[in-house]
Amino acid sequence: MKEIIKYIVGKTYKPLLVKYLSRTRTYTYQNIVLEVPAEVFHPGFFSSTKLLNQQVSKLNLLNKTFLELGAGSGLISFSAIRKGAIVTSTDINPVAVQYMKINAARMGMHPVIIHSDLFSRIPLQQFDVIAVNPPYYKKHPKSFRDHAWYCGVQGEFFKGFFSGLKYYTHEKTIVYMVLNDDCDMQLIKANAELNGFSLEMMFKARNLVETNFIFKILSHANKSAEKMDRQQEGFSSLYHSLRKSERRIYSDEELALLPFVEKDHRYASEWKVRKNTAHRLKHYLMAKPGSYTLLEVGCGNGWLSHFLALNSQFQVMGLDPHGHELEQAKKVFNLSNLDFIHGSFNKDFLEQGQFDFIVFAASAQYFPSFKYLISVALKHLSEEGEIHILDSGFYNKKELPKAVKRSASYFEMQGFPEMQQYYFHHAFDDLKEFSFRFMNRLELQFARMMHQNQVFPWIRIKHQ
């Protein structure tokens, strides 16, 4: 039905609109009077600009530094000035820049107006608020006017936007973006994630032709522990439902035997990998003389914590935010050197205490910011301690968008598309800030040569 309506609109309304907008028109919105030339995106006939303006207008903008990137007519910029913001407006279209200056002078407003392709000509600074109504149709723009509609065949606009955004934001910057259901959402989210950002939907508006979304762009590096806790709370019930659907909730008898399963078990090949990982880690740890404390973050049903605690030289703690499986772990596994704690992993999860080893086994992908995750782990790591990351995928820049799409397809197929917002893909580049080592480097190199993608890296991180 929607496609039929779009077809009718395209054949009737659109030609009339194109003809009407073929010359400069005067547009008035909330006492803001604009001269909008034919070469500039007209905010009056498309709902995206007004929806974004409505969300921005809810903010306290008094004395806030404000950037409208790709401002077009400048409607949002002029509205922000009315609310007391210190405004910078940019556009790649020189005609848009010219008319923003004309309209600003006529209304007695004084934004900084810059002719710029994305951030290229904006002096380096950190804004309090950034608003952007981007182009999102995947086609190469052939004129300045086209830049209001087309983001490039490979989404080049979003690659440039997210790669530059981090240099113009601080930890409290609010970034709003309006998108449409015709967007390639997976491509946009992949580019965001590649550069340390994620998208949180704030508002949705549907009409006969389209659905528009207002997203808040969040920096992984600056997400607070409180934000991560809220995500984990919403994640818990959804995760448990997915596990049940996948038939990964085991009976007490099955759990007691893990990682050993029958050859015809539905996940036999997966448990073979997990068993090998567990044995390699255990042998590595057992080679260390003395007794140690060990924390497994995201222990789930506790099988690995129990497997490691069978060696009495370790005092093991398993931590997980999901109560269902953790309660089962407490019931099934009963060792004097093994404890389970229900809680989130952040800088305050324990008032005091450090661990000699911290293990993330198939759990790193559930944390949005790898940098934040490791920084917290290092706070709880003894001076000579080690962090070990196992059975989690890491990707280079070229692989990352495809990996995001694969996960989205899987969750969609399972009937849990919402899981995608809680599942994060980390890049090998994320490791560069830390003192790390690949413990299975030769195995990884061989897998690369043989084009085998199922081999996970075993990563060890220490204090610098």
Gist of the model:
This protein is α/β, with parallel strands linked by helices.
Write the layout of secondary structure elements.
Layout: H1 2-11, H2 13-20, E1 25-29, E2 32-36, H3 47-57, E3 65-69, H4 75-82, E4 86-91, H5 94-107, E5 112-115, E6 127-132, H6 156-165, E7 169-180, H7 185-194, E8 197-206, E9 211-219, H8 225-245, H9 252-257, H10 268-286, E10 292-297, H11 303-309, E11 314-320, H12 323-332, E12 338-342, E13 355-361, H13 370-379, E14 381-390, E15 394-395, H14 400-414, E16 426-427, E17 435-438, H15 441-449, E18 459-462
Parallel strand pairs: 3-4, 3-6, 4-5, 6-7, 10-11, 10-13, 11-12, 13-14, 15-16
Antiparallel strand pairs: 1-2, 7-9, 8-9, 14-18, 17-18
Helix pairs in contact: 3-4, 6-7, 7-14
Distance between the termini: 59 Å
The shape is elongated
Kindly give the count of domains. 2
**What CATH first level of the largest domain would be assigned?**
Alpha Beta
What's the name of the CATH homologous superfamily of the largest domain? Vaccinia Virus protein VP39
**Total of DSSP H or I helical runs spanning 4+ residues:** 15
Which CATH-level-2 architecture of the largest domain? 3-Layer(aba) Sandwich
Radius of gyration computed on alpha carbons: 26 Å
Mean pLDDT: 86
- Give the oligomeric state: single chain
Strand content is: 15-25%
Helix content class:
25-40%
Report low-confidence residues grouped into runs of 5 or more.
4-20
Strand order of the largest sheet: 5-4-3-6-7-9-8
Give the tags.
alpha/beta; 2 domains; single chain
